[in-house]
Design brief:
The protein has one domain (9-77, 84-277): Vaccinia Virus protein VP39 (Rossmann fold), CATH 3.40.50.150. The chain is built from seven helices and 13 strands. The chain starts with 11 loop residues before the first strand and ends with a strand. Helix content is 27%, strand content 24%. A seven-stranded mixed beta sheet has the order 8-7-6-9-10-13-12, sandwiched between helices. It is α/β, with parallel strands linked by helices.
Length: 281
């Protein structure tokens, strides 16, 4: 993926590995960005990357979600219905993922819906809306003002606009979800530590991300459709997920990579992970 012409070196900043605190070595040059790998833990990240203010402009663009995971099935008007009724392939996948992930949550949590569920990176609120319908008491966090406004205004969901670290949330959530979110956050270690502080000791954390060791990523290099150096600023493998989660007090207990699984349907380069709090951490 090539960088949009509107981004220049003035919009970028250098960063270090969130685990090891050292600069990475260059893997892909996608100027003005660089995709680098930590020489110690092998975590892949983007440096230089967009500065926070430039990244916020990207997420606040009303067209950010259009043509992506929602296809054309969701209006960017916060007062409009969540879907325009067209069953686009993207929206069909969304419904499949949502149903599969709700079943996975119930299985991993071990109890029927009814407790408190938090989604970090709630987007337009479609998953939270389905979780609420299934019986969960839902809260959400979303960085995009457009997405948060739609989730709150059109769907009546409790969604905070900003970073999860700044959200006024009461700890003790039975379930915390982060679907395609952690690859976007400024500091994944800080992110997971915040999640650990919010999930109940007997709760469960579920997430999804693209993964660096997938076959498409390995074969396609800079042509990998999920590289997206503007917004996907961390790239994980199951091993680096486990390292990060453990440092934050969470244990990776399951990984779903099959594109045939409903929770990960059709995704050749993404995984769904399950984590639980480490006792005493």
């Amino acid at each position: 993926m090539s960088a949009p012409a509107r981004w220049s070196t003035a919009d970028t900043e250098d960063v270090v590995c969130c685990l090891c605190g050292v600069p990475g070595t260059l893997v892909h040059d996608v100027a003005p960005f660089g995709v680098v790998r930590c020489p110690r833990c092998r975590l892949v990240f983007v440096s230089p990357r967009l500065r926070p203010e430039a990244l916020q402009r990207l997420y606040d663009d009303a067209g950010y979600f259009e043509g992506g995971v929602y296809g054309s099935g969701v209006s960017t008007d916060a007062a409009a219905p969540a879907s325009d009724g067209r069953l686009s392939p993207a929206m069909l996948l969304q419904r499949t993922w949502t149903a599969g992930r709700l079943r996975l949550i119930e299985r991993e949590h071990g109890r029927p819906p009814g407790g408190r569920l938090l989604e970090v990176g709630a987007g337009y609120g479609l998953f939270l809306d389905a979780a609420r319908t299934a019986g969960w008491t839902t809260s959400g966090v979303e960085l995009s003002r457009t997405g948060a406004a739609h989730a709150s205004g059109a769907l009546g969901l409790d969604v905070f606009c900003g970073q999860v670290e700044d959200a006024p949330l009461e700890p003790g959530f039975a379930v915390v979800c982060a679907w395609d979110t952690v690859e976007h956050v400024p500091d994944p270690l800080s992110f997971w530590r915040t999640v650990r502080s919010l999930v109940a000791d007997d709760g469960v954390v579920l997430f999804s991300t693209p993964y660096w060791s997938s076959l498409p990523a390995w074969l396609l290099g800079t042509r990998w459709w999920t590289l997206k150096p503007t917004e996907h600023i961390w790239h994980f493998t199951p091993r680096t997920h486990a390292l990060l989660l453990a440092r934050a007090g969470l244990a990776l207990t399951g990984v779903v990579r099959s594109p045939l699984a409903a929770a990960n349907a059709g995704r050749l380069d993404s995984l769904v992970g399950v984590a639980r709090p480490i006792p005493g951490a």
